[in-house]
Structures are given as structure tokens and as C-alpha cells.
């Protein structure tokens, strides 16, 4: 079998179009412009790239973007004061604090100081609990994007065997909750899992989110399985010339594509969906804040 390639870039564009449509309606019919505040502390180069991209796409779908760039030495009290101000600002419907934070700042404390209704990352302990108990919550963007692609490909996921490799709070755990919510039989595998190849070989759905380049070889993939590769790893690519690099996922793409029914590429798979879902979450938060019907197809 040669896998169908799930085009995350194209899918993300359709999500952004839907978001833009909702934003236009909110403006026209309700006089409301959704607003997203992004807070970046320090100058981590990868974070700077993400934050720039988030701001650009926020404006492109017609929303207001509020960027707060703080010095790397910003105190916890000052950061908490900014979050308090954003929590109380009616123009701000979504708040995202870019992670990782500098080591002198307590990430859990900072995240849990965000108003859960504005927590478009879905990292606040209240949202984690709401998701875990199947209640309406804000859902982390990357897992939400993966779920949208899986639903789009399969329709119903009910009864499927799903393996999530990786147990992070940002991807693995919420992904497992979402799959469970869609009635999959879910296994969360991790670095201590016994006989990982065997566990993966049973799966109809494999979500790889560990951050280790090409750690899942094709011969672990069941024939016809759907493979969602969350990993974005930069590796040396001497074949492209001295000092050159390339991006690869957590799955060995060529060998996995030879067995899978469908697979997301890296780049161009899950990556573009994450920011699209952040925009979707911001519209959802804005609708909830204003007692309006939530956008169809943009929530879990
Ligand atoms: N850093 C890496 N991924 C994320 C994310 O999804 N949200 C935030 N806030 N920071 C990140």
C-alpha cells in the first residue's frame, strides 16, 4: 500500500477560511472583533518565529493581535500583573503565553493565572480537568488539529485502536483524551513502554509525539493504519551540502508511507494545523464570552 498523504497545509488553510468567515460575521452582526494576546518572555529564536507567525495569521483572518514582548529578566510579579490586565481586558478573548519560559519563572503558576475562558492553549488546570471529564473546555491546539485531520479522514473514529506515543501535557495526554472522547481504544506509550514495536503494530491510529527524529520505523506500522506525525526535528543533511539541515518527524516517512493507509508529512502535516487551531480557539472563546453560538466544526 502507498499511503494517502494528509495535507495539513491545505487543511489548515480551510480552517483559517472558516475562522475568517466567523470573524467577519462577528464584526458585521455583533460589532465584535475577536482579539488574541500573545506574551513572549525573552528572545528564544524558535519562540520568536512562532510568535511572529501567530501574530501575522491572527491579523490575516481579521482578528486583533496584541503582542507583548517582555525582557528575559521580567519578574514573575510583572508577568502576573500583565496577565491580570489581559484577563480583565474585554477586547482580549484569547491569551497565550509562549513556552518555554525562562527558568526563573514558574510555568504552572503563570499558566494557571490565565482566565480559563481565555486560555486558548488549553493548558490551564481547569481546562485539563474539563477535557478529562468530557466537559466543554478549551482544547490544546496541536491535539485539536490532529483530531480534526483524523475526523476528516475517517469520519467516525469509534472503536478504533489508537496509540499515542509520548505523554506530554501539551500533546500526548490531551490527544489521548480527545481520542477517548471519540470512542477509540487508547494506549499511551512512552519511553518506558515494554515492546513498543508490538504496541504500535496493533494500532489503527498512531500519533507520534516524542521529539525523536524518525524513531518509528515503517515496519512498526500496521498495514493501512493512519499515522499522525507531530514531531518536528531538525537533523543534519550533509547530502544537501556542508552544514545543511532538514526537518523530519518522529516517524520514518518513506518506510511508514509504504505501509500506512494515510500519513501526515513533516513539514506540511500537523505543524500548520496548530496555529490554525489557535485561531479557531480564539473565535470559540470570543463566542462563548459573548453568549453566542459556537462555530461549527472548529471545536472538539
Ligand atoms: N511552545 C511550543 N508549543 C507551544 C504551544 O502550543 N503553546 C505555547 N504557549 N507555547 C508553546
From TrEMBL:
One of its GO terms (biological process) is tetrahydrofolate interconversion. GO terms for molecular function: methenyltetrahydrofolate cyclohydrolase activity; methylenetetrahydrofolate dehydrogenase (NADP+) activity. Its EC number is 1.5.1.5, 3.5.4.9. Residues 140-288 form the Tetrahydrofolate dehydrogenase/cyclohydrolase NAD(P)-binding domain. It comes from the Bacteria. Pathway: One-carbon metabolism; tetrahydrofolate interconversion. GO terms for cellular component: cytosol. It holds the Pfam family THF_DHG_CYH_C. Keywords: Amino-acid biosynthesis, Histidine biosynthesis, Hydrolase, Methionine biosynthesis, Multifunctional enzyme, NADP, One-carbon metabolism, Oxidoreductase, Purine biosynthesis. It catalyses: (6R)-5,10-methenyltetrahydrofolate + H2O = (6R)-10-formyltetrahydrofolate + H(+); (6R)-5,10-methylene-5,6,7,8-tetrahydrofolate + NADP(+) = (6R)-5,10-methenyltetrahydrofolate + NADPH. Residues 6-121 form the Tetrahydrofolate dehydrogenase/cyclohydrolase catalytic domain. NADP(+) binds at residues 166-168, 232. Homodimer. Catalyzes the oxidation of 5,10-methylenetetrahydrofolate to 5,10-methenyltetrahydrofolate and then the hydrolysis of 5,10-methenyltetrahydrofolate to 10-formyltetrahydrofolate. Belongs to the tetrahydrofolate dehydrogenase/cyclohydrolase family. This is Bifunctional protein FolD.
Amino acid at each position: 500500500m502507498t499511503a494517502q498523504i494528509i495535507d495539513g497545509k491545505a487543511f489548515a488553510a480551510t480552517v483559517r477560511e472558516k475562522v475568517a468567515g466567523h470573524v467577519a460575521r462577528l464584526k458585521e452582526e455583533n460589532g465584535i472583533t475577536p482579539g488574541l494576546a500573545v506574551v513572549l518572555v525573552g528572545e528564544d529564536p524558535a519562540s520568536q518565529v512562532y510568535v511572529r507567525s501567530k501574530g501575522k495569521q491572527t491579523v490575516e483572518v481579521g482578528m486583533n493581535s496584541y503582542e507583548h514582548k517582555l525582557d528575559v529578566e521580567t519578574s514573575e510579579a510583572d508577568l502576573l500583573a500583565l496577565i491580570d490586565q489581559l484577563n480583565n481586558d474585554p477586547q482580549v478573548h484569547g491569551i497565550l503565553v509562549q513556552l518555554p519560559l525562562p527558568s526563573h519563572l514558574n510555568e504552572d503558576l503563570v499558566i494557571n493565572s490565565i482566565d480559563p475562558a481565555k486560555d486558548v492553549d488549553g493548558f490551564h488546570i481547569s481546562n485539563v480537568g474539563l477535557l478529562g471529564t468530557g466537559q466543554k473546555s478549551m482544547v490544546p491546539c496541536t491535539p485539536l488539529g490532529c483530531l480534526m485531520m483524523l475526523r476528516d479522514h475517517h469520519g467516525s473514529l469509534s472503536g478504533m485502536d489508537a496509540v499515542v506515543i509520548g505523554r506530554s501535557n501539551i500533546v500526548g495526554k490531551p490527544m489521548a483524551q480527545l481520542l477517548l472522547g471519540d470512542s477509540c481504544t487508547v494506549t499511551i506509550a512512552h519511553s518506558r513502554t515494554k515492546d513498543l514495536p508490538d504496541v504500535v503494530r496493533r494500532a489503527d491510529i498512531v500519533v507520534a509525539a516524542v521529539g525523536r527524529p524518525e524513531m518509528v520505523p515503517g515496519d512498526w506500522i500496521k498495514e493501512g493504519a493512519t499515522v499522525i506525525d507531530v514531531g518536528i526535528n531538525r537533523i543534519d543533511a550533509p547530502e544537501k551540502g556542508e552544514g545543511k539541515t532538514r526537518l523530519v518527524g518522529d516517524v520514518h516517512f518513506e518506510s511508514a508511507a509504504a505501509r500506512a493507509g494515510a500519513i501526515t508529512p513533516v513539514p506540511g502535516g500537523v505543524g500548520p494545523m496548530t496555529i490554525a487551531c489557535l485561531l479557531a480557539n480564539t473565535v470559540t472563546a470570543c463566542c462563548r464570552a459573548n453568549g453566542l453560538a459556537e462555530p461549527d466544526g472548529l471545536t472538539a
